[in-house]
Amino acid sequence: MEFAQAWLAEGPPYYGDSEFKDKGEMYRCGGRFDKEKKLWKAIDKDSFVNMVQSGKWTPQGVDGPIAVRVIQLQFQKMQEEKSKKAYQEAVAKNKNKKPELTPEQVEEKARKEAGIPDDKPEELERLAKDGITQVMIRKTFNWGTLGPKSGKSDALRVLCGLKWNIITVEEVRTGVLKESFVDRNARRMREEREAKLRAEGKWIPAKKQKVHRLPEPAKKPVDPYSREGAKIFYEQQAAPEPEPQHQEMPRIYNQADFKWLPDTVCSVCKAPVTDQFMDCQCAIDGAAWARCGKCGEKYRVDERVGMWNRNKLCGCSGKKSGRAS
Question: Which of 307, 314, 317, 271 is nearest to 290 (CA)?
């Protein structure tokens, strides 16, 4: 084992012998052929293990199975050290990691950093007349429409917002902003403009106003050699081709009047007379068949048929003249 460790410590390539017929297997295992030494070599430990385990390559200077066992033990030891190191790093990271703060602690920390003072009794008293409690006031801490937080209490910010019509009493009670300050200001300006135009008699309803839109810019042709052009090309190639629409062929017969009959059996050779070939085994002797145009049965039309042969007549009337189809 120690000799195999020292031999492997010299490093690749590792040379060995193999037969010429096994060259395909050697290439699949990762081996390479050295033209100067006329030997197969393993360029790393992975290919060394694969070539030895294939049973078609013998390393020179060391026992192959023992060397493979040494490599496996080294790999196992390396994996254990790697896992141990990762565990130690995770423990050190969790040890230095600060505990996560709750939403209440985060808000309290932000209040302390911003230097927000406590609510004054007279401010709370003024808001209480509108039915606004201190719990409702505290929920407006993160409302950006009320302006900066530093140096102002929550009650003072709410009073300023109500004074300047930035928020409403209903929004403070419910704790939900229905309309931002920008939207509310824009709506107020629209209403003032509409009232002014109505007073001057120049107001036009929105449905009758003409909307002037700029024409859409012309699309530039896509470069087929660009990334976008290649994407469009592959999408077109991958698109399924439309299935051809099959047109129904016109019927050449009345399906309601058509009657399918079994094949006629020759009374001499006992062979069926099919619609495809219209003959039987008696064709060697000159037998010929025809089909009746009325009943559809087949009958013999050659001169060799006997007078008492039952295949001489069809099934409708027994006359064959003018009935062959």
Answer: 314
**Cβ atoms 16, 40 nearer than 8 A:** yes
- The whole-model pTM stands at 0.32
Angle between helices 154-163 and 121-128 (to 10 degrees): 40
Q: What is the per-residue DSSP string for 26-62?
A: HHHTTEEEETTTTEEEESSHHHHHHHHHTTS-EESSS
148 in Cβ contact with 188 (< 8 Å):
no
Of 112, 121, 120, 117, nearest to 152 (Cα)? 117
Beta bridge partners of 227: none
Exposure pattern of 53-69 as b/e (b: 16+ CB <10 Å)? eeebbebeebebeebbe
Lateral strand order in the sheet of 31-34: 31-34, 39-42, 14-17, 58-59
Of the candidates 111, 119, 189, 115, the one whose C-alpha atom is nearest the C-alpha of residue 159 is 119
Strand partners, 264: 273
Spans of all domains in the chain: 2-71, 103-183, 264-312
| Percent of residues, the chain, with pLDDT higher than 70 | 85
Can you tell me whether residue 71 is helix, strand or coil? helix
DSSP 3-state of 324: strand
Q: How far is CA 162 from CA 27, 62, 133, 188, in A?
A: 82, 91, 15, 16
**pLDDT attached to residue 262:** 77
d(CA 127, CA 136): 10
**Per-residue pLDDT reduced to its tens digit, 197-241:** 888 888 777 655 555 666 777 677 777 777 887 788 778 777 676
Residues facing residue 300 across a β-bridge: 289
Gap between the Cα atoms of 8 and 62, Å rounded: 9
